[in-house]
Amino acid sequence: MKKNLLELKNVTIEFQKMKSNLKAVDGISFTVKEGEVLGIVGESGSGKSLTALSILGIVPYPGKVTKGEILFKGRDLLNLDEKEMTKVRGNYVSMIFQDPRVSLDPVYKIGDQLIEAIQHHKKVTLREAQERALKLLNLVGIPHPKRYIEAYPHELSGGMCQRIMIAIALSCQPELLIADEPTTALDVTVQAQILELLKNLRQDLKMSVILITHDLGIIADMADKIVVMYAGQIVESGYVSRILTSPLHPYTRGLLKSVLQLESKANKLYTIPGNVPGLANMPKGCRFFPRCSESIDICSKIQPPVYSVNDEDYVCCHKYS
Ligand SMILES: Nc1ncnc2c1ncn2[C@@H]1O[C@H](COP(=O)(O)OP(=O)(O)OP(=O)(O)O)[C@@H](O)[C@H]1O
Ligand SMILES: [Mg+2]
Question: What's this model's pTM, rounded to 2 decimal places?
Fold first, then answer.
């Protein structure tokens, strides 16, 4: 049986404000096993990025993880000091972000940025680092890597920049790669290429991946398991095959419906009515209830608990009591 690589238990992230604390992520739990791809989906503001940043220990101030545990190979990352956390970021967990152009330094050549990343993680000579840089560029599908080593970021397309960012993220041979909306800033065709690359890399390198997106369609093809977030909480989680064929939570069903309609090129696009509530005025009962077409009396009054459907399938909805 595959071992747990990462385990989030009841993690809460709060922003300390003058009068009260705002809970941006509220008691979430999930597991990523070795070699597994976990997709996190949810609309804008649901807490996906903050969750990712909490794993790397870089939640922006004044935000803070105030509760829970983040176990990486059984060790709680929340108990590590900055020096130990730097080691984790350099050796075990890496992240790629939405906009590759912002992440690359415009004044340094691609090769130098990659070599610096390699030498930052491992004690190697310049020659060894250069060789490794070329290998990494090859690995992420960059043709004629020697030519690209001398290029500056502005000379490259967005897709190429994202490949470079992936190469930098892989330079430490991470066991877990977190990709936060890695294709949102790219053209549709380039999006597909980058997703294909991530899929192949995950297989070749046997690493675990957390893929964050607001598009359920994107992870349908790549993830083993899905976590669906809504307003800072997980409303449903489980295996992709089950979630795509028989989603349990009305919110998941809504997300799925919008994807399916997109694919069938329907004239009128389905969107879930209403908006995600703001942190300062969360509904009292279920957070999704004001937008839910299936709500019952109790939904407006009491927060639903998490119901275990199967071994790895959970849903947070009163209808399953
Ligand atoms: N620095 C901050 N100060 C106050 N609130 C913040 C801060 N950063 C994030 N938040 C709030 O935390 C919530 C979750 O933010 P997060 O960035 O994790 O959402 P997300 O799911 O990644 O959204 P998106 O799809 O737009 O990237 C949002 O309501 C956001 O407004
Ligand atoms: Mg985000």
Answer: 0.94
